[in-house]
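Homework help board

Subject: predicted structure for assignment chain

Our instructor gave us this sequence and asked us to write out the predicted structure in token form, then describe one feature. I got the tokens but I'm not sure how to describe them. Can anyone check?
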Amino acid sequence: MDIRPVEDGDIESVVALWESCGLLRPWNDPHTDIARVRTAPQSEIFVMADEDEAIVASAMAGDDGHRGWSYYVAVSPNRRGEGLGKAIMDHAEGWLKSQGAPKANLMIRGGNPVKRFYEAAGYEVEDRVVMAKWLAEPPARDEPAELDVTITYLEMLEQPTRGPARPPRLTEKIALMRAERPTVSFYRYLYNAVGASWVWYERNQLSDEELAAIVQDEKVEICVLYYDGTPAGYAELDFRQESEVELAYFGLIPDYIGLGLGSYLLDWAIDTAWSRNPRRLWVNTCTLDHPAALPVYQKAGFMPCDQETIRIKDPRLG
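My token output:
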């Protein structure tokens, strides 16, 4: 893989990469950020290109004269797990060191599962408070009132030919248990712990009575994955439609992403669904979900069958 400073012809590909990784915010114009970094002293954007010259990773680095900083660290969702993130971070850190920076800092938003990646790279959480002040006219609001959300529907028409789901290492720490008629409060805990980072909101719009009617239905199975005795994620299979199974919800609590638990839970859910001999198994994901969700489902054997774009009121605005 070739790691080099960003070039004029890379800019649109880099912006698309950042968008695919969920790094963009309405109040930060990526083109302006790129232009400012390219003209600022002791700042650089590094990109990694594959054999076809496609941009698959990026890292922005700069030395403010006191500390080095990294931003916009991104790896294409369909190339994760190949060590590309570590490689480009190593490159950015080496460049900062060559500029004389004695220490590297970075900021991530609360609840972002990438925290584990940086911890593995040697970064530590420090007792600091980040404060900010707009020096230019701030945007009218931090988030748009409405969001355009693209929903991709995927289906599986036959059981995968692989062997049964296999748990990752440290199997003595892992347990799968069906939540029989879960309380609404427990379900809401799972739903929000897993989905808050990805703007899951539909179930929060239901009353307790409406939610109980779904999650306590005998044809809806909610299996909780425990790690070291603590809930780490869950899979919800909906058998209410004759001859079909919907993987209604699936995910891990962010603290447990990166341990190999997700692929095990997904394979287990797929095996459980096919044990009932349905005509098809289906799931949907959207552009608010984890950027890796779509390729993960496809890797597991789901095939896209439909897509639509809807506009919703941003649920984060209340």
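Reply (TA_rk): Your tokens look well-formed. For the description, you could write something like this. The chain has two domains: 2-120, 146-317. That's the kind of observation they're looking for.
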